[in-house]
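USER: Fancy drafting a protein?

ASSISTANT:
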Amino acid sequence: MTSYTTLIILSGLVIFSYLFDLISGKTKIPSVILLMCLGIGIKQVLYYFSFTAINFTNILPTLGTLGLVLIVFEGALELRYSKDKNSIIKKSFFSALIILLVTSVVITLIIQYISGQDFYRCFINSIPFCVISSAVAIPAAANMSKEKKEFIVYESSFSDILTVVLFNFMVNNRQISFSSFTKLGAELGIISVVVICSCLLLLYLIGRLTHHVKSFLVISILILVYSIGQLFHLSSLIIVLALGLFLNNASQIKLPIFRKYFIYPKLRYDIKQLFQLSAESAFLMRTFFFIMFGYTMDIYQLQNWSVLISGAAILVGIYLVRFLYIKLVSKTDLMPELVLIPRGLISVLLFYSLPAELKIKGIETGLLFVVILGTSLVLSLGLLVTKRQALNTKQGNTDFES
């Protein structure tokens, strides 16, 4: 394959991804589903014409990590803090935390029933199925009211972070004791120090860089800090969210000494440029990640009825927990909050991060694909129903006024 052929293929995939985003906006079908189907289709075409298969398994986690960092950073750069948002932040945090813990227990029991393995191993394997994908949820909430959109951005971001914290905690503590929680507290303390130092350093650099390339340097430092934190088993996604929130809200800090050294006239312009670049970079990473994930899928696992039944049981557990939480705890509108819990990028990342000795036979990529596909289809149908109801209500009000 020549370099020109490779460039044609890569450019074509990006164009397809752009078209899928446009289709998604019209049909409410998440573009990630279309990207995965494209990856599956490419693999079948290569097999049909007897081309050599490409192994993307090793590069997939790296692409997914880049995409995750950029998506969470992009979402954080959209959020402007004010005191009246404290209730949304608290509500979204507790929603993410409670739903994560309860869902993980429910799915653990389902996996334990399927596999007969011990509770600890089943719990570890359940975690990838419990996280709300900000990569899918945030774009899906783009056309909602400001309050609902902010809730989804916070909830999905908190879900990502809390799930990673829980996953790392469980993997690193086969035997949970008081010292396990002491280590977790120390870890969060270290992260807090890193967050403060990173925020101040980045803002200081942005204000004093005279080179025309700023945004890529900031993103590179962000990825560097995240990766170093992950090497030391820290939950670095907290750093990413905090940095985005800090940069977008730094101008609200009124301390004279802070404003003297860190606030400058072009700050808002630079943050806007940073947001644009991170959004477009996230789009690129998400495109290739989900196409490669679809390509690495073994679709013949879907011929196994046990995979489909297990996937259906997990889906029922996910939506039952969400339904009960909305009805009994949050007591808000059932739609569209009920369906805005898609699984996606971070589920795949955590699944591939499972230590080999903790993996359970039968809990494989086919089952993960069923759950991702199922939550995406429910999301699509739910948004379409919500949109139709809103249009009918609007039409009814118009007729009434007439």
Q: What stands out?
A: The two ends are 65 Å apart (CA to CA). Residues 3-401 form a domain with the Na+/H+ antiporter like fold fold (CATH 1.20.1530.20). The chain has one domain: 3-401. The longest helix spans residues 365-401.
